[in-house]
Amino acid sequence: MPEGADTIAQAYAGHQFGHFTILGDGRAIVIGEHLSKNNERYDIQFKGSGKTPFSRNGDGRAALGPMLREYIISEAMHGLNISTTRSLSVVKTGETVMRETPLQGAILTRVASSHIRVGTFQFLTATREEKNLKTLFEYTIDRHYPNIKDSKTPAIDLLKIVMEKQIRLVTDWMRVGFIHGVMNTDNMAISGETIDYGPCAFMDIYNPETVFSSIDHHGRYAFLNQPSITKWNLARFAETLLPLIDKNKDKAIESATATINKFDELFNNNWLEMMRKKLGFFDKKKDDEVLIGFLLSLMHKHKADYTNTFCSLMNTEIKKDKMFESKEFVDWKENWKKRLKENNKSNEECLKLMHLNNPLVIPRNHKVEEALKAANNNDLDPMLKLLRVLEKPYENQEDIMNYQSPGPASDEKYQTFCGT
Ligand code: AMP
Ligand code: MG
To answer: Does one domain contain both 122 and 244?
Structure first.
């Protein structure tokens, strides 16, 4: 550690699968902040570096596999242009970490625009530290949203901004088929970055009910539940802000509720705009929603690959799903082509819009597993190759075909673990 540096483990609380708990960084410490050349401030954090006052019964350690997994997926998200914390490095500690089996220990260095979570606010509400709540609130605005500093209604403004950020984030997740897997309120960052890569994974076959996490028995964090869970989490955030919204509690609740009630409409508009872009549509047309919905229902019915369906529509050199031979899909495609003509744009322009929004490659589960298995045996080659392809997921690359095929059919039952 640099001389004079003071590490901090942060306190927070959170709703985990709906149940409120006091938590805190049990295996992570912020080792400092970094100011970039553009004066942007970043937290530099170690994950897996040992016990903290919040470790409870845990050992504060992390295993190599889950840390490399976070590295791969978070860097892939960055390549996909999705707001995320980043991974600077993974270093083996040389220690053995005991989980179901003995595993190699490792520390991930995470870079985040901050580690302020919905759960950080919840901690101060739960411990009734109203003065500190105000300090955290002001700190958050200073650090992330200084433009609302002089607002007459800063608390409602903060709620609105965080809501917009989260809507944009979840819409982006749904654009690429990402399932976070553990959207507890302590894993939702006020900055709007994707944070805490645990049991997350990308969906191959389109199924809105997809869940990968071994502990998500009721599908609370399933692919299609992500927007409604985001709204639920934002409502928990709004609750913490009540004393800052208005001294009169009834008025504060009314104002917060009115803000949260706008979520559905805002999300739907955002989502529709995103799906339009995936299909190459400029402007809005009345029947777009039906056309989009019908495609999704066909993909679901025919078990089509989510990413590759859009690649095939862009005529990428890829094996087409069986769906493309079905009469109902051929009919849908005719309607889609008609709609493209209504754009009054050239084919090239439509295709360009699609290429900006549909990745050619995502971190497929079987490729991630293959890379992790090799890395565990000191062979970093598959992982480095995978990372290189994922740096430019919207561009055609020499060996891209090796990374585009969905895993074997057994991947439908692919399971992920928190790795804690
Ligand atoms: P996560 O699922 O990574 O969001 O972790 C949930 C909570 O468990 C956080 O408060 C972590 O700090 C804590 N935690 C996870 N793994 C460990 C561990 N090995 N030792 C101590 N605390 C942990
Ligand atoms: Mg967490």
So the answer is: yes
